[in-house]
Amino acid sequence: MHKGANPINNKRKFISKERQNATRSLFPEVFVEGKINWERLQLALSSEIDSDEEQFGLTWKGKRDCYRLIHPPALGSLEPVYEESVNWDTAENLFIEGDNLDVLKILQNSFRGKIKMIYIDPPYNTGKNFIYPDKYSESIQSYNVNNGNSKEKKKSSLSQNGDLAGRFHSNWLSMMFPRLFLARTLLTEDGVIFISIDDHEVYNLRQILNEIFGEENFVEEIIWKKKNTPPNDKVIGAAHEYILFYARNIRKILLNLRPRTPKQVERYQNPDNHPKGPWTAGDLMSNVKGGRYVKSLYFPIVNPIAGEEHFPTSNGNWRFNKKKIDGLISKGGIYFGDNGDRRPKLKRFLSDVKEGAPNTTLWDFVPLNTRGSLEMKELFGISTIFDNPKPCGLIIELLKLGSNKDDLVLDFFSGSSTTAHAVLALNEEDGCNRKFIMVQLAEPKNVDSEASKAGYSTIADIGKERIRKVINDIGNPCSGFRTFKFVKWDN
Ligand SMILES: C[S@@+](CC[C@H](N)C(=O)[O-])C[C@H]1O[C@@H](n2cnc3c(N)ncnc32)[C@H](O)[C@@H]1O
To answer: Could you give the 3-state DSSP secondary structure of residue 209?
Structure first.
């Protein structure tokens, strides 16, 4: 390639109007007769261009094609399905049946920057789940077909990404990358995304999320304890899964604290009738590892009743200086034991601590995975109607952490619609008006499956029916959802 040649593959034809406009507003000087002049763009970016061939990052066979999948517009539209909806006229919730790649593109028109929280539970790439083959060549062919450039029809089918399929990780990553890329732009500036995943792809998923969201927007890797008894067919039986948590912009997010449990509140008592209310005894020593000595914080605290002197232990010094401690003693803020003869402790008042308990990465306080199937049994009478639905309580906890009031919540691998169920149930509990958008492929159920026997031929059918049942059970006349189907345009 000669110096200055355009390294961008010429096949990459689709750059959305929005991206073109953004580039134009940042670098007007690089446009020549409506086209980007590569050499001018290089000059404009010169100090930022890293031309080193060896670069950090995850790469796989087909990654380049992923970028080509992102930009072509969806070749179809959403058609309303009134008869499958509830309260169409007033409903603000949406269920969209279709491939989420197409649907995420269509959602960009009306929902770009509007979704506060995304939760997804994609196929885990266990070798057993189905994934949709988005072959770039197929989409180009389809694009040409739909633009009258060819008489051939696009053929696409669901396929199993088995261990023996070759390119096992590559196929999965190629499926996830464009979808996550499109999902990010739907988030509000303070929006968050939670992704359930297990050990099969967690390390790869984190790398592509770092690439798409920026490593600085990684919030946490939550560990969900999903089983009490780990499977014994493995070297070490996994009793947990992960929930990767990223922000659109970590500087903008404001997470809710967890409400204190009755047990946590019980620790606060008021045996001395202190006017500030219930308190619990906390450490008065400063929390410095290794015992950093600060001279002004090393002094005796004198018990005002017994007159006994207490010095900091050898681990360090007091948390506050003498003036502050004297002030606390005079206001009854220091505790010397029930009989007034113990080492001093700080009274921590419930009225002073934050509204809720801090969030943690270890989620052993939410329901186990078995609860998900029980919930399906309660609704459908059959626990095996859908494989491995997430328990509502898990999603409710995520909603409490990442959403409020009227927020819009998206799940584009919605399966049995647990996320919709959780949104409806939590709104009922806390009076908020969160709204959901569920996206689910019409993945067919095997004819011998319990679902088919019960009359649900696709996973989308199960998801829609679940929402109808939950709306019916909750009995809120204002609840509803609109159903749409993604329909490809004929050539
Ligand atoms: C693990 S399940 C989600 C389960 C869900 N969290 C629940 O609790 O029911 C993943 C779902 O993603 C769906 N899916 C896979 N590829 C898809 C695609 N390209 N577009 C839309 N849905 C897809 C599958 O049909 C499956 O139902």
So the answer is: helix
With both helix axes pointing from N to C terminus, report the angle between 418-430 and 459-474 in degrees, rounded to the nearest 10. Answer: 10
> What CA–CA distance (Å, rounded) separates 366 from 427?
18
3-state per-residue secondary structure call for 333-353: CEECCCCCCCCCEEEEECCCC
- Contact present, 343 and 313 (Cβ < 8 Å): no
Architecture of domain 70-257+359-488: 3-Layer(aba) Sandwich (3.40)
- Buried (b) or exposed (e) across 445-456, using 16+ Cβ within 10 A? beeebbbbeeeb
194 vs 422: CA distance, rounded Å: 14
Cα–Cα distance for residue pair 48/42, rounded to 1 Å: 9
Location of structure tokens 């700080």? 346
In the chain the first and final C-alpha atoms are separated, in Å, by 38
Q: What is the pLDDT of residues 231-284, one digit of tens each?
A: 888 889 999 999 999 999 999 998 888 877 888 888 899 999 999 899 999 888
For residue 377, what are the contacts with CB-CB under 8 A and spacing of at least 6? Answer: 383
Distance CA(106)–CA(109), nearest Å, equals: 6
| Ligand 1 atom at minimal distance to the Cα of residue 386 | 9
CA-nearest of 102, 415, 466 to 481 is 466
CA pair distance 490, 145, nearest whole angstrom: 9
Query: Tens of pLDDT along 382-422?
Result: 999 999 999 999 999 999 999 998 999 999 999 999 999 99
Contact 395, 422 (CB under 8 A): yes
Query: What are the residue boundaries of the structural domains of the chain, listed by start?
Result: 1-55, 70-257+359-488, 258-357
Query: Of 407, 458, 472, 461, which is closest to residue 437 (Cα–Cα)?
Result: 407
CA distances from 456 to 47, 56, 203 (A): 58, 46, 35
Q: How far is the CA of 124 from the centre of ligand 1 (A)?
A: 10
For residue 276 the two structure tokens come to 């500030």
Ligand 1, CB within 6 Å, residue ranges: 99-100, 121-123, 131-132, 386, 389-390, 413, 415-416, 418, 439-441, 443, 459
At position 287, the amino acid (one-letter code) is N
**Vertex 56 angle, CA 30 and 71, to 5°:** 45
